[in-house]
Write a structure and sequence with these properties.
127 residues; alpha+beta; 4-stranded antiparallel beta sheet
Length: 127
């Protein structure tokens, strides 16, 4: 779209890919998920998806360990997440980060988008 908005069907496709990638690697996917756009930012919010082992560790006070492993996984596999967003939107991912929340159980995948050539677009500037 000319204004940089990503159509709803593409946002839904990104959501499905985030769930698919996580499910393939963790053996368990999110119970709910949705992707939101705010200017050049995409936020894929995934609810649920903690493995039984992670839930056990959390119950025993090991949130720091679970966070460390989750974020390390995201760093190691970030290219899969970036590639999915770039393929679906046709836009370059300038930056990607992930965050995990435990109470309640959410994972947020954060993407900063450029245009198809990797440049920031006008809607990324302060207003």
């Amino acid at each position: 779209m000319a204004d940089g908005s990503i159509p709803g069907d593409q946002l839904a496709a990104i959501t499905r890919e985030m769930v698919r990638i996580k499910s393939a690697h963790y053996g368990k996917g999110a119970t709910e998920a949705k992707t939101y756009q705010c200017d050049n930012f995409l936020f894929s919010v995934l609810k649920g998806g903690m493995t039984t082992v992670e839930q056990n560790l959390l119950k025993h006070g090991e949130a720091r360990l679970v966070r460390q492993v989750r974020l390390r996984f995201q760093e190691s596999n970030g290219e899969n997440f970036r590639a999915a967003v770039e393929r679906i939107t046709g836009r370059y991912v300038l930056a990607y980060e992930s965050q995990v929340l435990f109470a309640p159980d959410y994972t947020v995948e954060i993407f900063v988008l450029g245009d198809a050539h990797g440049r920031l677009t006008e809607d990324s500037t302060d207003r």
